[in-house]
């Protein structure tokens, strides 16, 4: 009975957060197919390990942690990272309006180390509270606060540098 209830709660969480989870995975791997694979692997892991979920109120952060860890595992397994020029990407992708209004911010965010980027993405793009981010990343709340502060400082410095380059 308990397992059935857990399965329903987990299924509802996955359905309600599918776009967010995909976006989270994509923020790590920068590839549509890989992000979809990570989401699929994460769902499988969550469904097969739902007996490990102790607190039903924490199902969202528990599932997000699985997605983050699966993304990091994927990156470790596939060390060979190839970047593609934006012009080349545009020739392969359908003409869709970019949802990012500030390309400098997007590019600068991608340049941040993963530990800072994760905190920013979870806090501001996934609208999680500091304690939820800490739970997802399996870190102390104070560590997350420090990383968030440092990440925002790095972003500010990098964006200011970009602005100065444009002025010159």
Automatic annotation (TrEMBL):
Residue ranges occupied by any RNA polymerase sigma-70 region domain in the UniProt entry: 14-80
Residue ranges of domain RNA polymerase sigma factor 70 region 4 type in the record: 104-155
Top-rank taxon: Bacteria
Pfam families reported for this sequence: Sigma70_r2, Sigma70_r4_2
CDD domains: Sigma70_r4 (cd06171)
Keywords carried by this UniProt record: Sigma factor, Transcription, Transcription regulation
Annotated GO biological process: DNA-templated transcription initiation
GO function terms (MF aspect): DNA binding; sigma factor activity
InterPro entries xrefs: RNA_pol_sigma-70-like, RNA_pol_sigma-70_dom, RNA_pol_sigma70_r2, RNA_pol_sigma70_r4_t2, RNA_pol_sigma_r2, RNA_pol_sigma_r3/r4-like, WH-like_DNA-bd_sf
Family under the similarity heading: Belongs to the sigma-70 factor family. ECF subfamily.
Protein name: RNA polymerase subunit sigma-70
């Amino acid at each position: 009975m308990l397992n059935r209830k857990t399965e329903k709660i987990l299924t509802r969480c996955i359905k309600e957060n599918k776009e967010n989870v995909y976006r989270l995975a994509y923020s790590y791997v920068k590839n549509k197919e890989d992000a979809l694979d990570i989401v699929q692997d994460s769902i499988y892991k969550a469904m097969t390990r739902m007996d490990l979920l102790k607190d039903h109120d924490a199902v969202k952060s528990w599932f997000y942690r699985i997605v983050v860890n699966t993304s990091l595992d994927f990156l470790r397994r596939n060390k060979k990272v190839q970047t593609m020029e934006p012009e080349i990407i545009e020739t392969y992708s359908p003409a869709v309006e970019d949802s990012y209004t500030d390309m400098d911010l997007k590019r600068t965010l991608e340049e941040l180390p993963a530990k800072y980027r994760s905190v920013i993405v979870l806090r501001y793009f996934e609208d999680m509270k500091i304690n939820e981010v800490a739970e997802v990343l399996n870190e102390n709340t104070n560590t997350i606060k420090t990383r968030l502060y440092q990440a925002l400082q790095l972003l500010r410095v990098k964006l200011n540098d970009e602005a100065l380059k444009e002025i010159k």
